[in-house]
Amino acid sequence: MSFALISAAGSKLTSCFSAEYLFVFLPVFLFAYSIVPDRWKKYVLITASCLFYCLVSGKLIVYLLLTAALMHWFGIWLDRLQTQMKDRLSLAEKEERKAIKNNFAAKKRSVITLAAMLQLGTLLTLKYTGFFLTNINTLLSALHSTAQFEIPSFLIPVGLSFFSLQAVSYLLDVYRGVIPADDNLPRLLLFLGFFPQIVEGPICRYRQTADALWNPQPIRYDNLTHGLTRIAWGVMKKIVVADRLDPLVKKVFTDYASFDGGVIALAAVFYTVQLYMDFSGAMDVVIGTAQIIGVALPENFKRPFFSKTISEFWTRWHITLGAWFRDYVFYPVTTAAPMKKLTTRARKKLGNHYGPLLAGGIALFCVWLGNGVWHGVGWHFIFFGLYHFALIYSGNLLSPLTKRAGSLLHIDPERIAFRWLRILRTTVLVVIGELFFRANGLWAGLAMFKAIFTRFSLPALNAELLSGLGVDWQDLLIVGVTVGIVFTVSVIQEKGVRVCDALYRKPTVIRWGTLYALLLFIIVFGAYGNGYTPVDPLYAQY
After folding, report:
1. Phi, then psi, of 233 in degrees rounded to 5
2. Alpha helices in 143-184 (DSSP H)
3. Cα separations (Å) of 248 from 270, 464, 484?
4. Exposure winner among 203, 234, 350, 377, fewest CB in 10 A?
């Protein structure tokens, strides 16, 4: 692609794993937060959040400020229309009320449509204008036309994809009457721009965090120790595993033609591990930071690699994004009047299972097309979304057949061996999707996928090959041990044990010994120091 898409970052604070964030910004913030009276803590939060955003995006903070202002204005507009409708209805005759409701419903639809178009239109314009124009230029060239569009360059503010979805969810909730409009602009700004979460999420709803952020609690010992432990756990995932794998992943995905299918398959697996450790580690740092001040952010991961189906995987991975698409795309599409009529007719002809899948398939397609577009610019992101759409929709279509086949073959789906086979199958499908997600374009992804089957071999992972990939056996051993630790903790959590709570019920020596051991493990085995190039959080670019 020849278009320019630039994410503006003004400092190393873009990474919540950076020394500047962990050892300067965060301690200074916590010190200031702890010494001011409780009634002033929210203003420390606003100041820190605006300062943080200025440091990472500079003057592009104007996008955040304008988004908050538009949320405030459109929300009050919708609220006033609702109040005006109630006033008119209270004075109207019975036969006039339906017309009044329809009139105000149309006005509210116009307002919310304008608001959503402004917010999402800005996001799509900044991220996808170059992509569309580049493809139009390619088409014109194929048609032997000399006309070409100039490809613009845009500076993209950090976190735009995340706070845009939060803004739209707030306005839609006001429109639906789920929440009243907030006339407090600073509170809306803090909801949008809370500094730990703005770079990578999670994507919060107004009801989840706005009041908690506006009424933050004093720092308590339990919150402090739990939060710091969660932060350390996330840092371990990031700099011990994700960053250590980055040279290998980058080398293979950049120069894939130089490697056979076995190395490409290995790189795809390692990238999936890297992405999980990077993104879930970032969520640990974000949620741990908020926990210190008594704010509970929604979890974004729930041990996704224990999923038995792709559908289940997406209820465990990037949970808040999936919930956003479910509530603001899938449900509205399936409950729209034309879709209801389609479902009713299809149910009569196709039955109760297949009938609803027609409208459901249209809604699911919209969800996964939007998911692909949201993640990034390029056909490979769109392919990534439609790949998962195809897997989930085909799974829904074939569900009665697979259940019947299992019954005829006397297969118990709850048997341990069968469950692990399903988990393995789902993991393989996920790794294939992540290969296309990480590839440098759709054609590169297709070429890499083809090479796995046509040029597959298992080369000896000797020192020479590993050196060419930017790692050595010590790196792989450290990664293996750390992944083993994370897996063990995940197994315990999957059994319903809250590991952190269980740890803090232990004697003081065990609690603090575990935390110090974790910190020592990071210091000894973390990827940093001379010759190390810091790796920005992978999801910060989306």
Report:
1. -60, -45
2. 160-176
3. 8, 13, 20
4. 350
Whole-angstrom CA distances from 96 to 85, 89, 411 are: 12, 8, 62
Take residue 344 and report the two structure tokens written for it: 């009713």
Closest CA to 237 of 493, 514, 25, 485: 485
Q: CB neighbours of 476 closer than 8 A, spacing ≥ 6?
A: 461, 466
Cα distance between residue 441 and residue 89, in whole Å: 56
Which 8-state DSSP code applies to residue 376? Answer: -
Instruction: Classify the phi-psi angles of 295: left when phi > 0, otherwise alpha if psi is within -120 to 50, otherwise beta.
Output: beta
Contact criterion met (CB below 8 Å) for 150 and 186: no
pLDDT tens-digit series, residues 472-526: 889 999 999 999 999 999 999 998 888 888 888 888 888 888 888 888 998 888 8
343: part of which helix (H) or strand (E)? Answer: helix 337-375
Tokens 């405030």 belong to: 72
Which residue do the tokens 């908020």 mark?
290
Tens digit of each residue's pLDDT (9 = 90 or more) over 75-113 = 999 999 988 988 888 888 887 888 888 898 899 999 999
Ranges of each domain in the chain? 4-216, 220-301+463-542, 308-438
Q: Are 119 and 132 in contact (CB under 8 A)?
A: no
Cα-Cα end-to-end distance for the chain: 17
* H helix runs in 376-413, sequence order: 379-408
Q: What is the DSSP letter of 242?
A: I
Helix (H) or strand (E) holding 156: strand 153-157
CA 36 to CA 57: how far, in whole Å? 27
Is residue 6 classed as helix, strand or coil in its secondary structure?
A: strand
Query: How far apart are alpha carbons 33 and 293 in whole angstroms?
Result: 9
